[in-house]
Every structure is written in C-alpha cells, then in structure tokens.
C-alpha cells in the first residue's frame, strides 16, 4: 500500500463515517435538520395555486406591493390554523402558491385562503359603574348574562398572543362560550384567562358598527413630538370620520389615559392587531396609531389595516388544486424503501457474480454511495417527492455504470497481460473520457427538468426527480472513481493480485 | 466476432417497423393527455363498503356526468375524471354518492385550469426540444477534434428521437387499450430516457474516437464495428443493472408512478438497442454516403463492394 493511497483511504473512510453519522438514525437532528424533507405527495396535504386578478391599469410597482400584502395576509390566516410549515410563495408575477403539508381538508383550506378577512373595531365592555369587564367577571356569574345589557352582539376574549380564545354569544342555545369553530367551550377551560378583557363592537351613535369598510387609507409614517417614531397614520372616509369621532368622544370621557376604557381594539378576523389609546375627543377623519413599534411592525399593521380584505380578488376556482391523503403517502414511502433496498441488493449480486472481486469492491462503494446520497438529501435539504425517490432508485442502477466501464477496461488490459497495478491505472484513465462525456448529457437533461419543474405550476415532481438524479450521478462518479480505485489499489502487489480469476479473467483460455 | 455494422440495414428495418406501428397508432388513436395537459378534475373516492362499477356509473350519469371517465382503482375505490369541478359541484357529487352508497372518503383530488394546462403542454414541448438541442451541441463539441463532429451529434439525436418515438408509440397503444394518459411524470420519464439513451451512445462514440485516434481497424466501418464489440458487454451490463432497479420500482411502488416506470423500461430497452444498433450504424451510413438506400426508388449512391 502506497502512502498516497493510504491517505486517500483514510479520507474516504472519514467521509463515510461522517455521512453515516449524518444519516442515521434517519429521524435524528443533524446540523439543525431533522429527518428527510418529504414532499407533499408523501406526507399528504393540499397544494393550491391562485391567480391574482389585478385591475388592468395596475403598475408593476403596485402589483409587487400588493403581492407582498396578499402573501402576508394569507400567511396570517393559515398560521392561526396551526398548520406546520406551510409554504406560501409568489409564483411568477401574479400567482400565489399555497402548500399545506399534512392538512388534507382541501375545501377548508380553500375557504381559508379565499375568504375576505374581516376588519372591525371594538371597545372594552363596561359595567354599571363604568369599570372594564374581564372574563373572570363572567366566570363568576351563576347564570351567564351579558353585563352591558345594551349590547347583544358577541364578546371576544383574546390571549396574550392576541389570538381569540373564546367568544361569549347569545343564540338559540342561550348565552354560552364558544370557540373559533363555534363549538361550546367548558368554562373551567377558561379559568387561566380570567384577566382577558371583554371586547364588544365599537359603534357610532346610531348603532352602526365601525368596520374596515369605513377606512380610506393606512400608511406607515415617522413622526413624534421630540424623537420621530414609527407610527401608522389612518384616514377614514366621510361617514367613518363622523362615526369615529362619536366613538372617540365617548371613550375619551369614560376613563383616564392609559386605562382599558380609553382603548380602541383593532381586530382582523377576531385577532387583536393593536389596541391604541384614544388621545383626543375629535379626529376629523384622520389619526395616528402610536406605540412602541418597530418599523417592520408599523408596516405590517398598515398592511393589515389596508388589506383586511385581500388587496385584490383571487380568481376562482384556483388554477391548480391537489390533495393527497396522508395514508397513501405512508404506503409510498415504505414501498419505495423496499424497492430501493431490493434494487441495491440485486445490483450488488449482479456485480459480484460478473466481476468477482472488483464487483465486490464496487458493491462496497455502492453502500458508500447510498449513505452519502441520503446524507446529502438530509443536509441540502432535498425535498423528496415520490418522483424524487424514483430518481434516487434509478440512480442506484446507473451508479455502477462508471464501475462497469472501468472494470471492462481493466479486464481488457489484464487480458493483454498487464499487471494488476498497471491494469487498474489504465482502466481508470482510459474510461474517464467516456464517464465524463456520458454523464454531462445526463446533467443537461437534469438541468432542463429542474428548469421546467421550477416554472410549472405543478412541476414539483420533475424538479424533485432532476435534483435527486443529478446528485446521484455526481456522487456516483466520486464513489466509482475514488472509492473503488482506492479499494482496488489495496490489492496491488499483494498475494491476491496474481489470481486473475478473482478479476474474472481466465488468462489460460482466452 | 459479431458483425453488427455489416447487418445494419436489417436493424434499421426492425426499428422502422416498430416506429411505423407506433406512428400509425399515434395518427389514429392519438395520445390521450392527462388533466395536467388538457385541464379538468380528477377525484378519487373510496367507500367503506364495496360498490359495483355499474351502479357507480349509473349514479354519476344521474348527476349529469355522462362524459366522465370512471376507473375502479381497487375494491370500493373509484377514480372520476371529468371537466374542472367547482367546490359546489364536487360537494354535490360526494353528497349524492354518500347518500346512495354510504360512508365515503375523498382520497385524492386534483384539478387543473385550462390556462395552466396549455402552459404546461407548451413548456414541456419546449423542454424536450431544448434538451435535444443542448445534447446536439454538447456531443458535437465533445467530438470537435474528430473529422465531421456534427455527424456524431446528429446520429446521437436520431437515436434519441428514435427512443422517444417508440415510447410515444407504445403509450399511444397503451392509451387505446388501457385508458392510460400521459402526464408530467411521463414527460419526466421521456426526458430521463433521452439522457440515458445519449449516455449509452456517447460511451460507444467515445470508443470509436479512441480507436480511430489509435488507428485500429482497416477502415471506418470496421473500426466502428470493433468499438461496438469492445463496449458491448458494458452496454448490456449497465442496461441490466438499471433495468433491475426499475423493475423493483415497478413491483413495489407500482400504480402511482406506473407511467414513469413503464416509460423508463421501454426507454432503457429502446435506448440500448438504438445505441448499439442504430447510432453507430448511422455514422457508417453517413460516412459511406448510403442515405439513398433508405429511399428504395433511388439507386444507392455508392454500391457496396
């Protein structure tokens, strides 16, 4: 064994050990990545693509800004539903991709995205003494009854994250607590939230509820008396300005600055966006929401105020819809592993039967290959769809191609009577141009598949296949050329090197 | 020693007949396009209890979906393929089916609008054309030091078109018999086959390049034949290992990506055949100026001695 070969062997073994540690166990966390990234068709879920319906005279800049807002709005709605790792992306100039892994109710997903969000303003409920009402006040009641009897609409209670925890409603079933999906809620479950304020709809003097419909504009601004601070300026339309001044006057006079009585609750789809204090009795149609905001928060709040409804309608039905149930996916994964395992074993048996010792070494290289490819899938990470798994399994069959090329050349050289060492070196160097040129064509095809996979609305399978096949071919060049050669060189000059039968060459017969 | 090149016109005839059958099928039956390319909805419903295909069909006919294509995918599970369904229409179908046949589950739903379908169709056509052009350029470039490098590129492309035509022809026949449709996975498979076929062809061309450079063989024709024979066991072995894993894929993963796997199987067989029997032979035909022999009523430009 030469010193150079020994060093290469050690490096190869180190890479193998590293790959093995990265890959196994498959669910373990390595470098912040846990398990393999599985595509929607394997874990089940919903895939939707919407076309945004812009007006004809919308400019490029407006479209870009609107697309940002629409993505943000949809993301907020979906986050409230607790879908893990949703993907909400812009596709091209005016399309929206929504992927919800593990969420299989496609109709619910669609209504979640398509709904126009409801922006409304609320104030805190007051009791007879003019004191704010909290959830605990209702929980203490023997018989649930609205405290402010003049307001018969629902009360909203939010948690510290400002998301709704419960509503107090009066309907055919009496006065009761319900959750977001209208199911009755047990009072004992609400004990922890006793200090939540009771929010009732904010109304003008004639009883009109103040909603986002009355807002004309909202924009982030920098202003302040001493130091400029990020704020949101809002503008009401004519009727909104009148209604809001009626509300502002009432709130202003019902409590000191800083108390809940003076708070204006801004709610989008029952989530509290902000609860600024009313500072003045009259605003004459415009105002600012100030507070301890960062610039990003201010921009986001202005966006939400403007886009309570989506900034533009989405065309219905969606351009593309797909739903895969989770059980199908689980079967696919198991079957794919099985196919991969059987495939790899058959290829190994074939290689050993046909090429004997070199075939055995190529089989070892194939184990290395499989480990390294899976480790790369985990690290990059590659999203494995069914097509991606197919590409990986196909690449197993193609991975030995470089070895087949090399071994055939080696056999020719051995038949010509060269020593094992010379035959190995000649085999590798002569086969190299074929390996290089033939694999480049595979990379060209992978490149084109990756491209169509990226631009097509439903192109994920093509993209996944291209990624796994390209990684597989690249790694196979490394394992076939470096790993197998290093292993073969171990035998040069040793007692086995003269036993040509081990190299499937029968010199005597020819 | 095998003499493949000497019998080249026999192999051209075999390929010609297979491609002709495919073209006849393509011209008469066409190539049924899946919803990705033609728009529409696909809905898979599975019932708790077994349901007869005829009864299922009858219920859909009652609902007005007389042109829907219905396939029974397994016991108590049906796939409906019809025009693009709205949420309401889908709800109506599911309610009516549940009312008649009891508890059901929507296992899969897929719906594609006409706009996306058209886009997908044209993009994939351009992708196939782009792949062929890229390969032509690359192979021509890789053989730039040889006399007539364009010959190598062109013959590789003819072999690739040959494989794609066979795959399309077989799918047209499968479509007519088994209601198979081509989808994006099919196109992915076709592109994979294109890459695979050229990969094989290039390995053989590489050997021709080497043998020509070393001056082995009496003339071009015998050099090509020697190169073919030299690489024959590699061509067969690589195809076998690839075929083995693809068969494992077919047996285990089966129906869901069967389009893809079947294209690969056809492609591997056709690709190996074209790499060994067609592409190198075409090089010789071109070199000898024998194109005239493909057109029977023209006399061969250069008679074979």
Number of helical regions of chain B: 9
Largest Cβ-defined interface:
A-B, 73 and 72 residues
Q: Which strands sit side by side, in order, in the main sheet of chain B?
A: 2-3-1-4
Largest sheet of chain A: 4 strands, antiparallel
Largest sheet of chain B: 4 strands, antiparallel
In the CATH hierarchy, what is the architecture of the largest domain in chain A at level 2?
Answer: Up-down Bundle
Mean pLDDT of chain A: 83
**What's the helix-strand series of chain B?**
HHEHEEHEHHHHH
The CATH architecture of the largest domain in chain B can be named as Up-down Bundle
Structural class of chain B: alpha+beta
Helix content of chain B: 55-70%
Gyration radius of chain B (Cα, Å) is 24 Å
Q: Please state the CA-atom Rg of chain A, rounded to the nearest Å.
A: 34 Å
What's the overall average pLDDT of chain B, rounded? 86
Going by helix content, strand content and strand pairing, the class of chain A is: alpha+beta
User: CATH superfamily name of the largest domain in chain A?
Assistant: Multidrug efflux transporter AcrB transmembrane domain
Biggest sheet strand line-up of chain A: 5-6-4-17
Tally the structural domains of chain B: 2
């Amino acid at each position: 064994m030469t010193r150079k070969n020994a060093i290469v062997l050690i490096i190869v073994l180190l890479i193998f050990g590293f790959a093995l540690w990265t890959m196994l166990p498959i669910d373990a966390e390595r470098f912040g990545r846990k398990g393999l990234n599985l595509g929607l068709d394997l874990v089940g879920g919903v895939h939707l693509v919407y076309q945004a319906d812009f007006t004809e005279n919308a400019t490029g800049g407006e479209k870009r800004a609107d697309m940002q807002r629409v993505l943000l709005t949809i993301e907020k709605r979906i986050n409230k539903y607790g879908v893990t790792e949703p993907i909400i992306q812009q596709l091209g100039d005016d399309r929206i991709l929504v992927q919800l892994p593990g969420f299989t109710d496609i109709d619910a997903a669609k209504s979640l995205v398509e709904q126009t969000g409801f922006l409304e303003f609320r104030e805190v409920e007051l009791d007879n003494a003019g004191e704010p009402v909290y959830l605990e006040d209702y929980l203490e009641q023997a018989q649930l009854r609205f405290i402010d009897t003049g307001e018969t609409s629902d009360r909203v209670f939010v948690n510290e994250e400002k998301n709704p925890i419960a509503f107090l409603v009066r309907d055919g079933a009496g006065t009761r607590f319900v959750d977001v999906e209208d199911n009755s809620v047990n009072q004992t479950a609400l004990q922890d939230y006793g200090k939540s304020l009771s929010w009732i709809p904010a109304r003008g003097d004639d009883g009109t509820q103040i909603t986002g419909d009355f807002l004309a504009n909202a924009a982030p601004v920098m202003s302040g008396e001493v130091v400029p601070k990020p704020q949101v300026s809002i503008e009401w339309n004519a009727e909104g300005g009148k209604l809001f001044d009626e509300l502002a006057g009432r709130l202003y006079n019902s409590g000191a600055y800083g108390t809940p009585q003076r708070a204006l609750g801004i709610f989008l789809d029952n989530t509290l966006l902000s609860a600024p204090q009313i500072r003045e009795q009259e605003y004459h149609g415009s105002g600012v929401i100030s507070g301890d905001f960062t610039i990003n928060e201010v921009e986001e709040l202005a966006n939400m105020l403007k886009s309570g409804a989506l900034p533009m309608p989405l065309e219905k039905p969606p351009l593309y819809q797909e739903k895969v149930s989770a059980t199908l996916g689980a079967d696919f994964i198991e079957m794919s592993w099985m196919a991969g395992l059987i495939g790899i074993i058959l290829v190994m048996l074939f290689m050993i039967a046909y090429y004997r010792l070199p075939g055995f070494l190529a089989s070892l290289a194939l184990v290395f290959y499989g480990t390294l490819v899976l480790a790369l899938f985990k690290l990059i990470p590659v999203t494995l769809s069914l097509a991606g798994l197919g590409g990986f399994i196909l690449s197993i069959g193609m991975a030995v191609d470089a070895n087949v090329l090399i071994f055939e050349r080696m056999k020719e050289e051995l038949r010509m009577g060269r020593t094992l060492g010379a035959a190995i070196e000649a085999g590798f160097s002569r086969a190299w141009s074929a390996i290089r040129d033939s694999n480049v064509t595979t990379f060209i095809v992978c490149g084109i598949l990756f491209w169509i996979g990226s631009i097509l609305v439903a192109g994920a399978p093509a993209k996944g296949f291209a990624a796994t096949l390209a990684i597989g071919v690249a790694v196979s060049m490394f394992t076939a050329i470096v790993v197998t050669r290093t292993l073969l060189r171990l035998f040069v000059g040793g007692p086995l090197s003269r036993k040509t039968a081990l190299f499937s060459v029968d010199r005597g017969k020819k | 020693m095998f003499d493949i090149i000497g019998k080249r016109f026999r192999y051209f005839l075999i390929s010609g007949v297979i491609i002709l059958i495919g073209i006849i099928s393509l011209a008469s039956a066409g190539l049924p396009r899946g919803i990705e390319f033609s728009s529409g909805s696909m809905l898979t419903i599975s019932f708790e209890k077994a349901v007869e295909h005829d009864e299922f069909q009858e219920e859909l006919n009652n609902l007005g979906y007389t042109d829907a294509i219905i396939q029974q995918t397994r016991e108590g599970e049906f796939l409906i393929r019809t025009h693009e369904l709205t949420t309401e229409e889908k709800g109506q179908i599911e309610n009516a089916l549940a009312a008649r046949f009891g508890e059901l589950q929507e296992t899969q739903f897929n719906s594609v609008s006409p706009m996306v379908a058209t886009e997908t169709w044209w993009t994939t056509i351009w992708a196939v054309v782009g792949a062929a052009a890229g390969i032509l350029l690359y192979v021509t470039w890789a053989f730039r030091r040889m006399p007539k490098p364009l010959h190598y590129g062109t013959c590789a492309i003819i072999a690739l078109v040959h494989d794609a035509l066979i795959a399309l022809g077989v799918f047209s026949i499968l479509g007519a018999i088994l209601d198979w449709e081509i989808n994006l996975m099919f196109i992915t498979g076709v592109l994979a086959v294109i890459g695979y076929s050229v990969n094989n062809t290039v390995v053989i061309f590489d050997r021709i390049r080497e043998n020509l450079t070393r001056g082995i063989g009496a003339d071009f024709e015998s050099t090509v034949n020697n190169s073919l024979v030299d690489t024959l066991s590699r061509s067969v072995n690589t195809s076998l290992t690839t075929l083995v894993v693809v068969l494992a894929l077919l047996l285990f993963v089966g129906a869901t990506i069967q389009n893809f796997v079947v294209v690969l199987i056809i492609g591997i067989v056709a690709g190996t055949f074209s790499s060994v029997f067609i592409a190198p032979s075409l090089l010789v035909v071109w070199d000898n100026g024998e194109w005239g022999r493909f057109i029977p009523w023209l006399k061969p430009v250069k008679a074979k001695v």
